[in-house]
Amino acid sequence: MRSEKPLVIPIFIPHSGCPHQCAFCNQSIITSQSHPLPDADFIEKEVNRFLEFKGKRRQVQLAFFGGNFLGLPQEKIVDLLECAKQLVNEGKIDDVRCSTRPDTISESILGAIKNYDLTTVELGVQSMDNRVLAQARRGHTREDTKNAAGILKAYGIHTGMQMMVGLPGDTFRTALETAEAICRLKPDFMRIYPLIVLEGSVMTRWYRQGRYIPMELSESVTLVKELYKIFNQHKIPVIRMGLQASDLLQDPQSMVAGPWHPAFGHLVFSELFLDRTLDEIEKKYPMTVPEQLILTVHPASHSRLRGDKNHNMKILQSKYPRSNFTVKTDSRLGRETIIIS
User: Fold this and answer.
1) Spatial distance between the Cα atoms of 182 and 213, rounded to a whole number of angstroms
2) What is the pLDDT of residues 197-255, one digit of tens each?
3) Which of 95, 148, 157, 166 lies in disulfide reach of 195, CB 3.0 to 4.6 Å?
4) CA 178, CA 2: separation in Å to the nearest integer?
5) Do 262 and 302 meet the contact criterion of CB atoms below 8 Å apart?
6) Which of 194, 113, 214, 213 lies closest to 155 in space, CA to CA?
7) pTM, 2 dp
8) Taking the CA of residue 145 as centre, how many other CA atoms within 13 Å lie in the half-sphere pointing to its CB?
9) Terminal CA-to-CA distance of the chain, rounded, Å?
């Protein structure tokens, strides 16, 4: 049975707490916001607005995203957590999560806020290759990530990690090595983002000067697919692949270049299904493939099997031109299962 997802109420704090701007970052575009730190009134209004969509979900999390939460001055962190604590006491939310840089995690800061309701921290790891991190002007090292992971685990805090592909100096091999290194740290979940060149970022200048060439969409999807497989093998859930869609992100004036797609994760899962289907056909019919093939999957996986704009079915038909393919669904199957008959 699938675990119930909480209602996550995002409060964005663009660039707040960040010691500098990374080469790839224009956080005000990514979060569609550019205002300063939210106050208690704003947070309460956002919580009340989101609670209208709670439905049957039992858990509600307040999430401070978009900046470097634990890099804020300590008094600001406490002010925001005090606001959250009041909402917990009122029964409106259950706990708090945040995103932050690995080099902001310390015994002192976690000790100072241990009596608040911060239960989940997402680390902006991006890469575990120090050379890649330096080229991206990230300002932290793989050692900072390893240290942060250890401290968070010691405090019993649910830990997520964010990885970015397509960074300057990164390669297919170094990305896979980053995934393996992250797995050794045993995070509770992952997000994987392809690098999108955004207007106002340092990367935009490098791109226009010819110093940076972004990944093609197909190349990025294939790489993220391989990363997903690594995390899946280690039983680490990948909760998102690709940036979330927003009106501003889909504005061509803000997106300069890069492998953007509004359903990037769907493309990854579709390619996984295509690989699995081809493997199953070759295993079951090593010599001669029948003229009629029935592919059966869970109803929720139907679109993933077919692929974006029927892409997978076109590839199957091209590879096996003498076979006719029929897709059926069966709710008794697992969502990643495919039966060939």
Assistant:
1) 26
2) 988 888 899 999 999 999 999 999 999 999 999 999 999 999 999 987 654 454 556 88
3) 166
4) 28
5) no
6) 113
7) 0.90
8) 28
9) 27
